[in-house]
Records
---
Amino acid sequence: MPSPTCNSSDDGHERRAAQVQAMFGSIAHRYDLLNSLMSLSMHHRWRAALIGALRLRPGMQVLDVCAGTGDVALAARRMEPGLRTVIGCDFCVDMLHIAGAKQASPACAVTWVAADALALPFRSSQFDACAVAFGIRNVVRPADGFAEMARVTRPGGVVACLEFGTPRGRVAAALVRMYENTALPALGGLLSRRAAYTYLPESIGRFSSREDVMAMMRAAGLDKVSVQDLALGAVNLFTGVRR
Ligand SMILES: C[S@@+](CC[C@H](N)C(=O)[O-])C[C@H]1O[C@@H](n2cnc3c(N)ncnc32)[C@H](O)[C@@H]1O
């Protein structure tokens, strides 16, 4: 699977996208283990909530953008075996190789596609539902990422996004920040690449507020945009319906 080149309009964006691509490549082999340890295994529940928001039914075609090691796409297949097509795409082929190795049987097949979220190689309105989990924060132009997801989703289809956020309560926010800034890099340093896990709290801190994410989704062509807090608001589940 060849690596797609990053579709970013200026040099700074292109450089950052290439760094993100290389960073995920360097931690791909440890990604799942660290996910489970760092989220105290809560990530399964968060992904299940994301898939629930997609309102899956037999016959649907589903896209998982920034699919990484494939847990969302594979769980969607498990939760609704009658889906017509499930595609997981990501621009980091090392992450997709791990995803491909997890497929237990052809019956729960997911098609893995190496692609940039900013230039999805799919027709407009091709999918009934589109998901992104912990990916949009890493996309250098997240508003354009949402626009691409909206483009490939049919009118009336759901676009759902899981992303780290900031709890509304001051105490909870301080505790979560402390955990992200100390425990995550320490654990990452022990079992993987520390730099990738200092990038994690930095990228969360840099990312847009929940209000800005909702505004981006509306601007992308989504209606009925809403947000639900998970893990006290440390994780946000955004949903919108394609206009
Ligand atoms: C934190 S991982 C999330 C993976 C998976 N969705 C999950 O829930 O575990 C973020 C993923 O986004 C991918 N990514 C970041 N920017 C991307 C882009 N512009 N196009 C495609 N994939 C991108 C990375 O390669 C990485 O696999």
Note: The domain at 11-166+208-242 is CATH 3.40.50.150 (Rossmann fold).
---
Amino acid sequence: MTVQSRKSPPTHPGYLVFNSKEIKENPLNFYNRMWKEYGDLVRLPIMPNYSIYLLAHPSYAEHVLSTHQELYAKPDIVNKPFNLMMGESILTSEGDFWLKHRRLMQPAFHMKQLAKLADVMVSCTESFLQEWEKKPDGEVIDIAEETLRLTLKIAGQTLFSKDISDEDSVLGQAFRTGYEFINYKMNNLWTEPLWIPTSRNQGFRQAKQTLDKLVLDIINSRRQNPQNRQDLLSMLMSAQDEETGERMSDKQLLSEAITLLVAGHETVASGLAWTWYLLAENPNIIEQLQSELRRVLNGSNPSFEKLPQLEYTRRVFDETLRLYPPAWAMPRTSKQDDQIQGYLIPKNSLITVAAFMIHRHPEFWENPDQFNPDNFLPEKVNQKPNFAYFPFGGGKRICIGKSFALMEATIIIALISQRFKLELLPNQNIEIDPTFTLRPKNGIKVKLWKRN
Ligand code: HEM
């Protein structure tokens, strides 16, 4: 493509290397400030000849993630920390490798397969809530920590049929150490290279060795005793390339299994933690939610068949992901010169597709900061342009776990709301931690009450 425009968009004066404290401390606040000051397409020079382009308009998001996606790739600064934990996988690869893996893995996420996992999600949540039942009324819990524990439990059971959320689970401990390490790598501009024997690096190496060994043991034992298990790992093990008949090697299975744990647990947990924060602040919405749950479930558990009727419950989660999208900024690098809205985007620039800002863009959302699940009534959704809402990304790299996540969240919201009332503890400093996902920085403390 020949790019004629040399026109540069509104640009922040000075280089970001000299502002790194503000960006490091709170990139979300910084980007928000840039958006408000400069508009929907801003150039943020990092150093000479290297800039971030902040995109905060649905049509720019559509350009990068969908219509011109072949001109953009996921950047190394994001891929490298992930690859330390899981090796090359669907999340971080490009080209033929990515396509091959996406084709192999996609069938495991089809509705027909997911239907088999709904009961697992229900029974995991039930056994988790049995612990809550034992707590005295009014006990304070951190709902952000709790949802993380619950989604890790569900991730382990749906993937390997194992509970890795248990404090005693060696696999769970190794996973959590590895996960904290990649979070640290992603959130710090400079970190010690892995070959330096710091205690953090050594801890990671050890955890990674343990994790790989335990997951490979599971894969081996399944190869030796092939039973028809209904979990994602068995689906991945039996997946076959339609053209070549090829299956995934043990190494590939290992990488993809760890990828699904990484990509699939904190994202859902963080969305759910904000759901309870928003619900606790909006009692009228809790009323409508309760009335739907009574009408559709009448005290019974949610099931795969009932999910389409839980429309309001689903809208509550959709709206939470609008206000607090776990993947709040989707990073890309430009593979060649491009042009957006007449502005030059030079090759090798860093692109931030700002879902957080687009989801609150006043041109596309009425009262953008207000929690209103009715924003997702079908008639309202139909009026919105593409990419006014895209918590799961878009184009060919759209989240493979989207239906899994929506099913899981709807089930969890229904089961918790049927059994418990969560009351926000007053005077808390609720802050967003804009790291890998958009989790609450100091947690969210709530009092737990059983419903009769
Ligand atoms: C609310 C929960 C979730 C959110 C908001 C979310 C969001 C996203 C987004 C935005 C992307 C695309 C990133 C980009 O283009 O830069 C993505 C990709 C991905 N997600 Fe999710 N996700 C969620 C849950 C899950 C779950 C439950 C799984 C697996 C069980 C999963 C697995 C993946 C994988 C493997 C990819 C990479 C797909 C590819 O590149 O082909 N996600 N997710």
Note: The mean pLDDT is 92.
